[in-house]
Amino acid sequence: MKIKIRKAKKDDWKEISDIYFEASIDEVKLQFPERTKSSIIKEVNKWKEDRIKEFKKDVNSKNNCYLVAEINREIIGFANAKIDKNKEGKFTMLYIKKEFQGKGIGKKLIKERLKWTKSKKIKIIEAGSYIKNKCSISNLKKFGFTPVTIVMRREL
Asked: Exposure string (b/e) for 77-109, b if CB count within 10 Å is 16 or more?
């Protein structure tokens, strides 16, 4: 299984959107098991057009790095890194199709995002994850990320 990591192109939006849709449902369900799948789908779909618009705007921006992981030209995962107005790096998304998880693809995407942020002379990088996403947290810790804050939430 030869995995290729490359910069995303504007016409990759459909595959990226599909991967995000499926993976984010699982991610939200993991963090909020009481939520119904239909309510999560409704919420994810609510922001679909905005996500696609943002991707198309940011994919070629010098302050954003969208990467895709491919096997035999099939996109099986993607990740994003960006530089904020304070010149800090943000790792905002990393999603992999379920059948390809646990094969080291996430690690490859993290390494490539680290290379990109280093090439931009970034000194601080932040990455977020749901607290119940132990796999994501474990991977980030392997690359030297440490927890610095916890965000508390309450719905009204």
From this structure: bbbbbbbeeeeebbbebbbbbeebbebebbebb
